[in-house]
Design brief:
With 460 residues, the chain is an alpha+beta fold. Helices cover 44% and strands 12% of the residues. It has 4 domains: 22-116, Resolvase, N-terminal catalytic domain (Rossmann fold, 3-Layer(aba) Sandwich); 129-232, Hect, E3 ligase catalytic domain fold, CATH 3.90.1750.20; 253-330 and 396-440 and 454-459, no CATH class; 337-389. The protein has helices at residues 22-32, 44-47, 51-64, 81-116, 147-161, 166-175, 188-196, 221-232, 292-295, 305-320, 325-329, 337-358, 364-389, 403-408, 420-430, and strands spanning 38-41, 67-70, 74-77, 129-131, 143-145, 203-206, 209-212, 253-254, 269-274, 281-286, 302-304, 409-410, 415-416, 431-435, 455-459. The strands form 6 sheets. It has a 3-stranded mixed beta sheet. Strands 8-14-15 form a 3-stranded mixed beta sheet. The termini are far apart.
């Protein structure tokens, strides 16, 4: 039977912390003074929090003949040979844990030091690079570019900067036979991760700050920021329930006049409707808004989709084929230096605010408001940089010998034309397309599928 001489509890101190444990210290002092001859704990891990604690505890208990007992792991009586063996086992286990802890800490310190220098910290190789063995790092670069993967990243960036979609880019990359580092087919979300990763721009991030890394970039910094701004744009559609099949779906708008005198302006969508003979169906653009009082709930406009697409295609090709197209359509050059300077000032101010927050100058609510303002201002600057860096959607179309051939390709020769996403981006950049209700009802003349008087294509 044991008499309880004291209860020592450090419930408010986490097992993973290195902070002092007052109650544990008092217990050791009572053991040293001879007031305690046995110690009971729920589990050995409740007695010691660090390997050094265990080694010290076993040494003190062994010196004073103190019996150690736990509810979950039994007794450790250091006055008996078996107990001393168990104590030695515990001490050895503590030493092993100590060595493992030191190795882990050294590894973490090495990674932090490498990261601070912009070095590679290991793990799965980043897409676009291979890891260079240490013995072969003659130029000090831990990563070397894999050209086929780098070209895929640059192609995807070009698609996004010229108005294309991430889904289309993923399909094109997959058709080229390029796979993820795990060997799987690329999805849009997987490509997004690659494009947003700082490694892609040869950057390392330390405490929220970007530092140059020790390898070559897949994308230059301005291009990487521009692509990031596009992908982070909250107005960008990230999920599409269907794939676009028509050139003007969502681009052309309804020009019907509403009762208040304003124009409808609802984007047209394509679906199938009756026409072309008994039981025949054809695709048509339709405005789903309706003027119930005047049209009985019918659509404002319904127009043959193939005919309208062909007309706008012809207008676009004719405009791009003009000799003055390059001069009239060339985007104005923009000086990026002020935008880059604005971004650096914002990041510097952010670092200062973080330091003030740590010093207690801001309370939680104040810092939350400051952080929200920082994110909004940084997003605006990045959007301006993206707009300034966005590739010319007309690249490869202006000044070429045959615009129609570039647009349509040569299917017989296996030469593809522009993707639908690219065509849509070109049309959206050049034109405002409005479809008006037809003034005259009835059939169109033979061979005519579109009433051009009810279609307005205006330059932007």
């Amino acid at each position: 039977m044991w008499d309880v001489v004291g209860v020592y509890s450090d419930n408010d101190t986490s097992a993973s912390t290195s902070r002092p444990r007052p109650a544990y210290g008092r217990m050791l002092a009572d053991v040293e003074a001879g007031h305690v001859t046995a110690v009971i704990a729920w589990h050995p891990d409740r007695l010691y929090r660090r390997p050094l604690d265990l080694e010290h505890l076993v040494t003190v208990a062994e010196r004073h003949g103190v019996q150690l007992s736990t509810c979950k792991a039994g007794e450790v009586d250091l006055n008996t040979p078996s107990g001393r063996m168990n104590g030695s086992h515990l001490r050895g286990r503590g030493a092993r844990r100590g060595r493992a802890t030191r190795r882990a800490e050294q590894s973490r310190a090495g990674k932090r030091e490498a990261q601070a220098r912009g070095g590679y910290t290991g793990g799965t190789r980043p897409f676009g690079y291979r890891v260079v063995p240490v013995a072969e790092r003659h130029d000090g670069r831990p990563l070397a570019i894999i050209q086929a993967e780098a070209e895929a990243v640059r192609h995807v960036a070009s698609v996004l900067l010229t108005g294309g979609s991430l889904r289309a880019a993923a399909r094109q990359v997959s058709e080229r036979g390029v796979r993820t580092v795990k060997g799987t087919v690329f999805s849009g979300s997987a490509l997004r991760k690659v494009l947003l990763r700082p490694t892609t721009a040869a950057l390392a991030v330390i405490d929220g700050a970007e530092v140059p890394a020790q390898w070559d970039p897949l994308l230059n910094l301005d291009t990487w920021r521009a692509v990031g701004a596009i992908l982070r744009d909250p107005t960008r559609r990230t999920t599409v329930a269907y794939e676009r099949r028509w050139l003007l779906s969502g681009i052309a708008v309804c020009g019907a006049t509403l009762p208040d005198g304003t124009s409808c302006g609802v984007p047209l969508t394509a679906n199938t409707t009756a026409g072309g003979g008994p039981g025949a169906r054809r695709a048509a653009y339709r405005c789903r808004a309706a003027l119930a009082a005047t049209t009985g709930g019918s659509a404002h406009v319904v127009r043959d989709a193939a005919a309208l697409d062909k007309y706008v295609r012809d207008v676009t090709v004719a405009r791009l084929s003009r000799r003055d197209a390059a001069a009239l359509l060339a985007p104005p050059a923009r000086d990026l230096a002020p935008l880059r300077a604005d971004r650096e000032r914002l990041l510097t101010k952010r670092s200062e605010d973080l330091a003030l927050r740590r010093a207690g100058a801001y309370d939680a609510a104040e810092f939350l408001a400051i952080s929200r303002d920082f994110r909004e201002r940084l997003a605006r600057v990045d959007k301006d940089l993206a707009d300034a860096q966005s590739g010319d959607v007309l690249a490869g179309l202006v000044g070429v010998a045959d615009v129609a051939e570039v647009w349509d390709g040569k299917p017989d020769a296996g030469q593809p034309g522009l993707s639908l996403e690219r065509r849509r981006a070109v049309v959206a950049a050049l034109w405002s397309v409005t479809v008006l209700p037809r003034e005259r009802r009835g059939r169109l003349p033979a061979g005519q599928r579109l009433d051009l008087s009810a279609v307005r294509v205006e330059s932007r």
